[in-house]
Design a protein that fits this description.
heterodimer; A: mainly alpha; MetI-like fold; 10 helices; 80% helix; globular; B: 261 residues; mainly alpha
Amino acid sequence: MNPRRLATDVMLGGVPIALSIALWQALDSFGYAPATLLPPPGRVFVRLAQQLLSSGYQQDIAATLLRLFAGFAIAVVLGIAIGLTAAVHPAVNAVVRPIVRVLAPLPKVALYPALLLLFGFNHESKILLVAADALFPILLSTYYGASMVEQKLIWSALAAGTPRGQILFKVVLPAAVPSILTGCRIGLVISCIVVFLAEMITSTDGLGHVLVTAARTFQAVDMFVPLITISLLGLILSGLLQGLRSYLLRGFPEV
Amino acid sequence: MISWRALLSHLAPLLACIGLFAIWQVAALILDTDSFPTALDALRAIPAILGDKESLINILASLRRMAVGFGLALLLSIPLGLMMGRNRFIAAFFNPLLMVIYPVPKAALMPIIMLWLGVGDIAKTLVIFLGVSLPVIYHSFQGAKAVEEKMLWSGAAMGLSAPQRLLRIVLPAALPEILTGCRTGLVLALITMITSEMIARQSGAGNILFNALDMGQYDTVYAMIIIIGAMGIGLDAAFENLRRRLVRWSEPVFELPLSFA
């Protein structure tokens, strides 16, 4: 994409975002929405800056991030391991496929009460819910990526003297990396969303809990702040993952 | 005469279900705590829920809101996605906005929307609508972008106007991809519905689930989980069936869409 086209695209893309903020401000300024229901954008962003500097809020962010990363890490490890094994091992495949077929369209949030009963109201139940939700995109993308590796690549590696046992790690896994990273990106955003929702349903700390507390006391400003924070976290984390992707895939053709 | 292999592949999901129930049963028998009833106990509690008039009405009301939210989302998202796929300026206009909205937890908007619109049907339907829209827009966008230019040129040469081309060339060509988006959207609609009801705790299937949890009726909790799970699997299977009929000419690259969660 040439720089001029990029510039027009950025300008065009900025318009609806600017317009929505302007509309938001206008609704307040012209008195269509009372500030108690829809606080003006300026006040929300000032409050966001204040909160980001306060230590209590930072602890809430830390609690959310801890659960998010723990759950996401479990999902990445399990998803890649199961996906790869299912792709190369026919017997495992025959077992995993129907189970995934059943579990993937199941709304994982519904499992949350069971997780609460089994693992308590602490970190564990939330981490497991995040892991359960992020697992399937990663598992599926690993599986599809690994099963679509070109047979010729494997033959060439074998002909070049790679031992059969190392084919998985030297050929299949690297060839599946672009697909795995796509799955990880979907899984990461889902993790952000799920951890927040789990904290809203039952929690004593974390960003989701901040929103619920604000909702119970009708503090509209404080309801917007955690929502914006979690969305920013989602954007930042997927940006970081994008960076990791372009680093890991620096030799790959454009995908 | 169906071959054994085909029969087995048809029965595999069913066998998987039975296997999962068996694991549950064994785990519950080993753990033996009140908060983890056996699979059989949970299954036995299902008729009681479905037989109860009030909870049945609640579940049906949930499903109705879900259908309305899903339908409205499709009506708006598919044309928007298709136009974004065919016009670079429209795409550049909407893409950053959608990127910003993407990581917002839609069900978490429930408290704010309730503040504006009350706890009625409108708030819940709106949340479901928001949850479904994004994947449908995204997939329609991808589908429309991949339409072969030559077909559009031929259409234009034969005198089709731009809206006609969108309807008669782009829509059918992008249909497989659109339906993949709808499939993800359908599962997401169910998830958003349950989550928003868990958060708002006023009525619906999610509310029954958490009320049972609060009252310590563990059989009901697990029975509700089975019911909701079955709804997810059933809706998905039904939609997959419909999709296969509509776009018989195109097999999807992936058996399951990646964005499932």
